[in-house]
Write a structure and sequence with these properties.
heterodimer; A: alpha+beta; Rossmann fold; 2 domains; six-stranded mixed sheet; five-stranded antiparallel sheet; elongated; B: MetI-like fold; two-stranded antiparallel ribbon; 78% helix
């Protein structure tokens, strides 16, 4: 069984490490996938992507964006309206779920309530006519992988949510599926357990070198464990990129907003690269025709806030603007400030440090950020 | 913690008092209208019967002795149990697919179809039985169809076949209701999960749907069996007096022969059958859970 191979050191594995041979070969291909229900607008349309062997893709988006429908199409539980699904070059579009050889972890776990943990995990092996002795050994190994050997004879209702989740994972993995599909597997767990489970899922996925698709509406979850993220919106793939690229260079304002908080500014491009926002002129790295209406976005925690005491702060080339603190929100590990800057209200985040907090409502401050951190989009492309 | 433990019995005691007070009216009604008549019935079975339906003074076990030694009554008892089991089985076979289908419809259609399934209950069993007499009679619809297909129809009325056909249809709504209550707990994602693990549709049914619907199925079978054993009008009319079951025999003894002690003893026998059915149901339910 593949579970035993390539024991990996615990903890965060390097993102680009090759856990198994055959990496870089395309394993899962979706070609112009489309799903329609009746005459409604398509739930999913023109969805194309390729996954390498051993890659973990996160499908991210708000509820109703078609990410779960996409997952169900891959698993065969929902027939496609148009397009093709290929696994290792083989067209599986027309195959029913029971012939697709995919491991699925469902949002509500979907454990069989009338079977024990061991019977649940053994079900897929039984369907594959694996001998009783071998099945027993593989079930115990799979349960060992999720640290649940001791609970093999319990019924699912006697387990906690996290334990049920791990049984569901073991059940999906024990059949050594060609692809692992996870449908919001962590959404029913509490915050602490969620972090633990997501690292465990990533760990196991890397150890087995299994190609996986992970559906979630939580951008932190997706960024933490996925090799690449596909952001979906209204049935379409808005952008597919690595977490870093997605965060730093989002393709659209929608993606930018979805993967983290953003300040929105409206402006007009001037000759020479500057952008006029109200009275101020801001520097950006983008280029384009003068007079173009623009949407500028800056992440709140990329803005440094300094008191107005000495000389104008900030390195040369930085955007520096005066402002007044209007609201301070303490959220534990960070302080959220609302700062009026001309006619705009900017959100600024800074980590809390020990000692008295540095700014109070009414303080005059300077806001400084790099032109690199200013994303520009043509006006009218926002959600 | 210890305080909570100390006050607990008191809380229980008070809860018990309220419970008793709430239960008292229904308890009283049951004692007066069910328990007392049953005891009366049991007493009656130990009295002798005289000519012309008179009941003699003094207690005797004669009725019970003749009942338990006469193979005629044993045959009625076994025949009734067997026929009722057969009817229960046929009702289950006819109801299960229908209930499964209804449970999978969209909310609006499901409610409509549930009403359709239960609607036969709006028509009295007597009327429905007469309906079956028309359908099953020699010149009726069913033999007509069989003849039209070029076959000789068997006798369908005034025999056991007629009773079984009629009761199966009449009892189906009860079975469907019980099954639907059971199917309500069936989660479709369990079937999806089984499918992705490699189970074909029939295997999904056998390993997931059927086991999970067993509680509703058992309840439906208990209900149908009890109703089949106690049904009287349908066997009487569709059996045409030729099919002797416990309920029809009780009627004959009580109304025609006027042997009330024997009718009472047979009624107690029916109660024993019910008790046995409940015991079997309890055991099977424990197994299923």
């Amino acid at each position: 069984m593949a579970i035993a191979r390539a024991p990996h050191a615990a903890g965060e594995a390097p993102r680009d490490a090759a856990p198994a041979a055959g990496l870089n070969s395309v394993h899962l291909t979706l070609e112009a996938l489309e799903k329609r229900y009746g005459n409604l607008p398509p739930s999913v349309s023109a969805l194309s992507l390729q996954l390498r062997q051993g890659e973990l893709l996160g499908l991210l988006g708000p509820s109703g964006c078609g990410k779960t429908t996409t997952l169900r199409m891959i698993s065969g539980l929902v027939p496609v309206t148009a397009g093709r699904i290929l696994v290792a070059g083989r067209d599986v579009t027309a195959l029913p779920p029971y012939r697709r050889d995919m491991g699925v972890v469902f949002q509500a776990y979907a454990l069989f309530p009338h079977m024990t943990v061991a019977e649940n995990v053994a079900f897929g092996l039984e369907m594959r006519k694996v001998s009783r002795a071998e099945a027993k050994e593989r079930v115990m190994r799979a349960l060992g992988m999720v640290r649940l050997e001791a609970l093999a004879d319990r019924k699912p209702r006697e387990l906690s949510g996290g334990q049920q989740q791990r049984v569901a994972l073991a059940r999906a993995l024990v059949i050594e599926p060609s692809i692992l599909l996870l449908d919001e597997p962590l959404s029913n767990l509490d915050a602490k357990l969620r972090d633990e489970m997501r690292n465990e899922i990533r760990d196991i996925q890397q150890r087995l070198g299994i190609t996986a698709v992970f559906v979630t509406h939580d951008q932190v979850e997706a960024m933490a464990i996925c090799d690449r993220i596909g952001v979906m919106r209204a049935g379409r793939l808005e952008q597919i990129a690595t977490p870093l690229e997605m965060y730093e260079r989002p393709a659209t304002p929608f993606v930018a907003d979805f993967v983290g908080r953003m300040n929105h500014l409206r402006g007009t491009r001037l000759d020479g690269g500057g952008v006029r926002v109200g009275e101020a002129v801001l520097a950006t790295t983008g280029t384009g025709p003068a007079g173009e209406a623009l949407l500028l976005m800056v992440r709140p925690h990329r803005i440094q806030m300094t008191p107005v005491v000495a000389a104008r702060p900030g390195a040369t080339g930085q955007n520096v603007q005066p402002g007044t603190v209007r609201r301070v929100t303490f959220v534990g590990d960070a302080l959220h400030y609302e700062v009026t800057m001309g006619a705009e209200t900017m959100l600024v985040e800074s980590s809390t440090v020990s000692g008295p907090q540095s700014f109070a409502v009414g303080d005059a401050v300077f806001l400084a950020w790099n032109p690199d951190d200013t994303l520009t989009f043509p006006a009218g492309t926002e959600a | 913690m210890s305080a909570a433990v100390l006050t607990r019995p008191r809380a229980d005691w008070r809860g018990g008092t309220v419970l008793m007070a709430l239960l008292a009216p229904i308890l009283l009604v049951n004692v007066l209208t069910f328990l007392a008549p049953v005891i009366n019935l049991a007493m009656l079975s130990f009295r002798g019967s005289g000519p012309g339906g008179s009941i003699q003074e003094g207690l005797t076990t004669a009725t019970w002795t003749s009942l338990l030694t006469d193979s005629f009554y044993w045959e009625i008892l076994l025949g009734t149990v067997w026929t009722s089991l057969l009817i229960t089985f046929l009702t289950l076979i006819c109801s299960y697919p229908l209930a499964l289908w209804v449970s999978r419809l969209g909310a609006r259609w499901r409610n409509l179809m549930m009403v359709v399934c239960i609607s036969p209950l709006l028509v009295s069993a007597v009327v429905r039985t007469y309906g079956w007499m028309i359908l099953l009679g020699d010149q009726g619809f069913v033999p007509g169809v069989i003849r039209a297909m070029g076959m000789t129809p068997p006798r369908l009325l005034f025999n056991e076949t007629g009773v079984i056909i009629g009761l199966t249809e009449i009892l189906m709504p009860y079975m469907i209701l019980s099954l639907l209550a059971g199917f309500g707990k069936l989660d479709r994602t369990l079937e999806d999960a089984a499918g992705t693990l490699g189970a074909r549709p029939f295997t999904v049914f056998r390993r997931i749907v059927l086991p999970l619907s067993l509680p509703g199925l058992l309840l439906g079978c208990l209900l149908t069996f009890v109703l089949a054993v106690s049904s009287f009008i349908t066997p009487k009319l569709l059996g045409g007096g030729r099919v002797v079951l416990l309920a029809t025999e009780i009627y004959d003894q009580a109304i025609v022969t006027l042997n009330w002690p024997l009718a009472s003893a047979l009624s107690i026998l029916v109660l024993v059958v019910f008790g046995a059915a409940l015991a079997v149901y309890g055991q099977l339910s424990k197994l299923v859970d």
